[in-house]
Design the sequence.
C-alpha cells in the first residue's frame, strides 16, 4: 500500500513512504505504517473521497493537507498534432547516463526559485533546507531511467526523461511515464533565462505529438492549483481538469522517535489512561518538553512497551481497558513526536505485557 522512498529518506534523515490511494482503509493503512515504521507518509487522495477527513481522524495521527493538485486530461482520439511556436527547439531522449550531470544542473536551476510544495508543512519548513528539497527532486527525476524497456511497437510501463534544446543550448527537461495506452507528463522545467517565452507550450505540444505517434489514447498531468501560468498553458494545449487530489502528510514518526525513547516507572495496579497520561506529562515536564494531550481519544497516540524488569515478554494486542495485574515494577517506554508546532506523544501500536503464571 505504502511505498518506501529510500533516497528521500536518506536525504531527509527520516523514514518516508508514499502512496496514491483511491480510498482510505484505516485498518490496512495503520498496519502498513506500523509494519514499516514510517516517520512521514505522503498520501495523494481524491479530494471528493466520501468522509475523507473522518477516516483520517480515525487514524489518530497528526496530518497536514500540504496542497491541492488539479489533474488534467486529454483524449488523443479527439486530438490532432499541433505545430510549434519555436522551430529551433529540439528534443533528445535521456538514456540514463549521457548528460546525467547536465540534467541534474537543469533540474536544480529550473526550480531554484520555484516554490516546491512536496514538503509544504510546518515541520519540514523548519527542518529541511532548500538544498535537501532540490536533492530529493533531482533524485526523483533521475529515477526515470528505465528507457531500456522502451519499445515503440509495444510501449508498457516506461519512465523516461527528455532533454530540451534551444538551438545548440540545453534549456529544459520533461519527465514522462508511459503505461499501456496512456502517458503522464510528470514534471517539466526550463532554465530561468528561457522562461516566459511560451517555450513550455511547445514542450507540451511536442509530448502530445509524440504520444499521438505511439497511438496513445489518454494523456494526464497534474498542477498545483496556485500555479496559474502552467494551467493557462494546459488549457491552450486542449487539456481539461478531470478531478482534484489532496496531498496529505501523515506524521507517525515511529522510526525516528524510537531512537530516543523515554524510560520511567509506572507502578499502578491497572493500566488507567488518565493516570498514565498524567505520569507522562510529569516525566516530560521534568525533561522540559511540552506535551499536549487534550485531544486524546485512547491509547492510539502512544506506543507503549510494558516490561517486568528484565524478564522476557510476549506481544499482545489489547484494548484501552486491558488490566495489568500482579506486577511488581513495570517500565514503560513511550515515544514522543518532537514537532515544532505542537509536540505530542505519538505512535499507534500495542501494549506488551508480561505473561504471568
Sequence:
Amino acid at each position: 500500500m505504502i511505498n518506501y522512498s529510500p533516497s528521500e529518506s536518506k536525504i531527509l534523515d527520516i523514514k518516508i513512504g508514499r502512496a496514491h490511494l483511491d480510498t482510505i482503509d484505516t485498518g490496512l493503512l495503520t498496519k502498513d505504517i506500523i509494519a514499516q515504521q514510517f516517520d512521514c507518509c505522503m498520501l495523494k487522495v481524491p479530494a471528493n473521497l466520501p468522509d475523507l477527513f473522518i477516516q483520517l481522524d480515525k487514524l489518530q495521527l497528526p496530518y497536514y493537507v500540504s496542497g491541492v493538485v488539479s489533474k488534467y486530461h486529454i483524449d488523443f482520439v479527439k486530438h490532432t498534432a499541433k505545430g510549434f511556436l519555436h522551430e529551433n527547439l529540439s528534443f533528445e531522449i535521456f538514456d540514463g547516463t549521457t548528460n546525467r550531470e547536465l540534467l541534474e544542473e537543469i533540474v536544480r536551476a529550473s526550480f531554484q526559485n520555484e516554490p516546491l510544495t512536496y514538503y509544504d508543512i510546518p515541520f519540514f519548513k523548519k527542518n529541511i533546507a532548500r538544498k535537501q528539497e532540490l536533492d530529493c527532486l533531482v533524485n526523483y527525476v533521475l529515477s526515470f531511467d528505465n528507457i531500456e524497456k522502451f519499445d515503440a511497437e509495444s510501449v508498457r510501463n516506461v519512465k523516461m526523461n527528455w532533454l530540451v534544446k534551444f538551438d545548440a543550448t540545453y534549456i529544459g527537461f520533461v519527465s514522462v511515464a508511459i503505461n499501456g495506452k496512456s502517458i503522464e507528463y510528470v514534471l517539466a522545467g526550463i532554465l530561468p533565462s528561457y522562461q516566459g517565452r511560451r517555450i513550455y507550450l511547445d514542450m507540451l505540444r511536442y509530448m502530445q505529438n509524440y504520444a499521438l505517434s505511439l497511438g496513445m489514447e489518454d494523456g494526464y498531468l497534474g498542477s498545483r492549483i496556485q500555479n496559474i501560468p502552467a494551467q493557462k498553458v494546459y488549457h491552450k494545449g486542449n487539456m481539461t481538469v478531470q478531478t482534484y487530489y489532496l496531498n496529505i502528510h501523515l506524521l507517525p514518526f515511529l522510526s525516528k522517535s524510537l531512537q530516543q525513547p523515554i524510560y520511567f516507572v509506572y507502578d499502578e495496579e491497572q493500566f488507567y489512561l488518565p493516570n498514565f497520561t498524567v505520569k507522562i506529562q510529569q516525566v516530560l515536564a521534568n525533561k522540559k518538553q511540552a506535551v499536549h494531550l487534550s485531544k486524546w481519544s485512547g491509547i492510539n497516540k502512544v506506543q507503549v512497551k510494558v516490561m517486568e524488569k528484565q524478564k522476557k515478554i510476549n506481544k499482545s494486542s489489547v484494548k484501552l481497558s486491558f488490566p495489568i495485574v500482579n506486577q511488581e515494577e513495570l517500565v514503560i517506554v513511550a515515544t514522543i513526536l518532537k514537532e515544532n508546532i505542537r509536540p505530542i506523544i505519538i505512535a499507534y501500536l500495542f501494549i506488551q505485557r508480561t505473561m504471568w503464571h
Remarks:
- Residues 260-353 form one domain.
